[in-house]
Design goal:
This protein is α/β, with parallel strands linked by helices. It has twelve helices and eight strands. The radius of gyration is 18 Å and the shape is globular. InterPro entries: AB_hydrolase_1, AB_hydrolase_fold, AB_hydrolase_sf, Epox_hydrolase-like.
Length: 298
């Protein structure tokens, strides 16, 4: 049962649910063709990918889940919401769907969750499409102070500086650079977090971003398993949360990396540039399929 506040014209998808020990996970599964699995960041949910899915589902199978604590998934009070736990529930969804030969589309906090899956199951991942994301501990982890290591990236610091604001204030501050984003769309992000007057300190989006340094170190030790995966990076250069130096780190990380900068784009390219993103993603998948075909027949 979808909530009354959800605009079904904006989000015209059939809901699916998977019962996990952590809670009930909501996901959508639209279209047929090459599989694209979309992982959202914080404090977002699959709603952020709605316009992208409407385009890509014509020729692709699009999977987009709401991580536990977000969107239409359960929001258990006694779950730890740490990155490792989210990665485990995401892996359980992938096992349930029995997906192979997938393209992971990751953004923000969704990047380490998706890359953790790729490290464990590189044989299932054909390619990665990355939007503005960070994983500081995967780079120069030792260069960060003790305080910085406890927070995961710039968005974590931003959230923790806003612990006493309401969810409504938080969403409006995060989206303040998206000039053309209508108020009813912003409200879909507010309502999906639960009580709009709730303090941010009680939300999964704040709780999940602490205590991740050790987990990132473990991922980094396994990095060679994913460095060769073909990767497309779509980067909003006006992002005030994640600076351009993060893009430089990712470019050095992946061996086969294509970068498309969006000069006027911010942190939420999915809201600003869905048509362009869909075109780039589709072309990237076609090119990788072509390369694979040529390799098999060479």
């Amino acid at each position: 049962m979808k909530p009354d506040w959800l605009d079904k014209k904006e989000y015209p998808f059939r809901s699916h649910y998977l019962d996990l020990e952590a809670g009930r996970m909501h996901y959508i599964d639209e279209g047929e063709g090459p599989v694209v699995v979309m992982i959202h960041g914080t404090p977002a949910w699959s709603f952020m990918y709605r316009n992208l899915i409407k385009i890509l589902r014509k020729d692709h199978r699009c999977i987009a889940m709401d991580l536990i604590g977000f969107g239409l998934s359960d929001k258990p009070k006694d779950w730890n919401y740490k990155p490792r736990a989210h990665a485990q529930t995401f892996e359980q969804l992938m096992e349930h769907l029995q997906l192979t030969d997938i393209t992971l589309l990751v953004h923000d906090f969704g990047a380490p969750i998706g890359l953790a899956y790729a490290i464990k199951h590189p044989e299932n991942v054909r390619g990665v499409v990355m939007l503005n994301s960070w994983t500081w501990s995967l780079s120069k982890h030792q260069s960060f102070s003790k305080a910085s290591k406890y927070l995961v990236g710039p968005l974590g610091k931003f959230l923790h500086s806003k612990l006493n604001v309401t969810t409504h204030t938080l969403i409006h501050e995060l989206f303040k650079d998206e000039d053309d984003l209508p108020e009813p769309i912003k409200e879909h992000y507010v309502k999906a977090l639960g009580n709009p007057e709730e303090s941010v300190r009680d939300l999964a989006c704040a709780r999940e971003l602490v205590g991740a340094s050790k987990w990132y170190e473990e991922l980094w030790k396994e990095r060679k398993k994913i460095q060769g995966i073909p990767t497309l990076i779509l980067w909003g250069e006006r992002d005030k949360l994640i600076k351009i130096d993060a893009l430089q780190r990712w470019k050095k990380f992946f061996h086969e990396c294509y970068v498309i900068p969006f000069e006027s784009g911010g942190h939420f390219l999915q809201e600003e540039n869905a048509e362009e993103i869909a075109s780039y993603v589709s072309n990237f998948i076609k090119e990788e399929q072509k390369k694979k075909h040529e390799l098999i027949h060479s």
